[in-house]
TrEMBL record:
UniProt topology in membrane: Multi-pass membrane protein
Top-level lineage group: Bacteria
A GO cellular component entry from the record: plasma membrane
Primary subcellular site in the record, as a coarse category: membrane
Residues engaged in binding Mg(2+): N138, D199
Pfam families tied to this protein: Glycos_transf_4
Protein name: Glycosyltransferase family 4 protein
Cofactor(s) listed in the protein's UniProt record: Mg(2+)
Database matches in InterPro entries: Glycosyl_transferase_4 (IPR000715)
Keyword Magnesium tagged: yes
Membrane-crossing segments per the record: 49-82, 94-111, 117-136, 143-162, 168-188, 195-217, 295-313
Amino acid sequence: MTWAGFYVASFVLSAFGAWAISRHADKIGLMDCPNGRSSHCMPTPKGGGIGIFFVFLLSSIVFGLPVSFWFPIGIMASVAFWGDRVEFSARLRLVIQLGLIALVIVVGDKGEVPGGLVYLVWICFWTLFIVGTANYYNFMDGINGIAGITGLLGFALLAGYVNLIGGPVAATGVAVCLSIACLGFLPLNMPKARVFMGDIGSILLGSVFAGLIWLTAESVLDFVCMASFLFPFYVDELTTVVVRLKDGENLTKPHRRHYYQLLANEKGIAHWKVSLGYGVFQLAVGGSVLAVRQFGLPWVMILLLVWSIIFWMESWRTRKSVQLLYRKT
């Protein structure tokens, strides 16, 4: 099969997986029933990201990613799929995630880091970054289309950047396949959701995205540029954490205070419009970062600071209007 044929197969496999779950979720315990944190009001099948999961495994094997990379991440996604079916301790899930990703970093040692304390800090940083990104992606997967659009654009930008810096062909190939897999998933999730991606999809996409950065980044500049391709998710999650800490909330308690949730729920904007808006924002940030990359890290950091201020100001304005709305009612 040619690479083009495999890319087409990635679309088909992802779409088929989502369709199969949408048809049979009730038989295998994969129905998402709404609760106080949900942005939907009807029971909906979840776990539709299983096709994306198989695309990741197959593309990793076909393009030749190290087994030490895709096998632990595959196990982590499988645990997430089990979590889609059966509720179990979030603390236990986090411990499993940290252990598996630490294994990826240690076994896949790139060999350029000194030993001792520096090596330990290096392991801790990448482990926390990958696990954190996986869970951020999961937290942000709360309305129709947002996880699929973000994956489509994020992995496409990542593939382009890795190709630009002459990175591993395997990483580029897997990123392209996952981008196309997200495209294959979207018709069943947007504008009306026939199926949700579920933890198997969101945890997988977040961990692979961050893992590919670890695998390919050759400098701090590379790291910052590639991480910026998921900028809307990072800045929304971090802003929400700050707001909740300011309000004295327990961060482990489920909530519905992300900016995208306020837009879709309190402001009543259609899910697909909010998701497309995040996609446009993602392209604007990614495109501008690629444009100023040639001028070096300081300029990229200044640009991201400007984008952060823009997001924070708009988020603050929306949160204020929501507070006023609640006071009037």
